[in-house]
Amino acid sequence: MSLKEKVDTAIKEAMRAQDKIRLTALRAIKSQILLAETEKGAAENGILTTDAELKLLNKSAKQRRESAAIYREQFRSDLEAQEVAELAIIEEFLPAQLDAGELRVRLVEIIRRVGAAGPSDLGKVMGVAARELSGQADGRAISQAVNDLLSNTDF
After folding, report:
1. Residue 114, Cβ neighbours under 10 Å: how many?
2. CA atoms of 121 and 7, how far apart (whole Å)
3. Which of 141, 11, 1 is nearest to 89 (CA)?
4. Other C-beta atoms lying within 10 Å of the C-beta of residue 32
5. For the ranges 17-31, 43-57, 105-119, which has the lowest average pLDDT?
6. CB 142 within 8 A of CB 125
7. Could you give the dihedral angle defined by the CA atoms of residues 43, 44, 47 and 51, in that order, rounded to the nearest 10 degrees?
8. Does the pLDDT value for residue 24 go beyond 90?
9. What 8-state DSSP symbol labels residue 47?
C-alpha cells in the first residue's frame, strides 16, 4: 500500500473519530503528496517513489520539530503542543528510527567497509551512510556519530 493510500485510510478513520489534530496532520501530509505528484519531474507517471515519500515525510517531520522549538523559545506551549502532536502522527508513517547503539554499530560496519581511517575520510563515509541509513536516523545524528567514530580510531 502506498503512502497516499495509507494516509487516505487514516484520514477516514480520523474523520470517524472526530480527531481534529490527527485530521489536520494527515491532510497536511496528503497535500504535500499531491503537490509532489504534480511537480514536473518529481514523480514518474504521477506516482511517488518510496524514497520520495520518505523524503517528504522527513521534511515534514523536520518542519514540525523546528516549529516546536521556536514555539518553546517563545513560551507558546499551546502551539508547541500542537506541533509535537502532529509530529507524532507524521512519525507513525516513518520507518523506525535507530537508537544510538544501533546507529553506532551500523556506522562502524560502514566505516570498515569503505576503509576509512580517520577524520579525513568523513565525506566518503557520510556518502554511504546517508544513503543506507536514510529515514532510519537523523542526518545530524549520523554526521555527529561518524565524526566521533572517525576521531576515535579504536572503534
Report:
1. 14
2. 40
3. 11
4. 17
5. 43-57
6. no
7. -60
8. yes
9. B
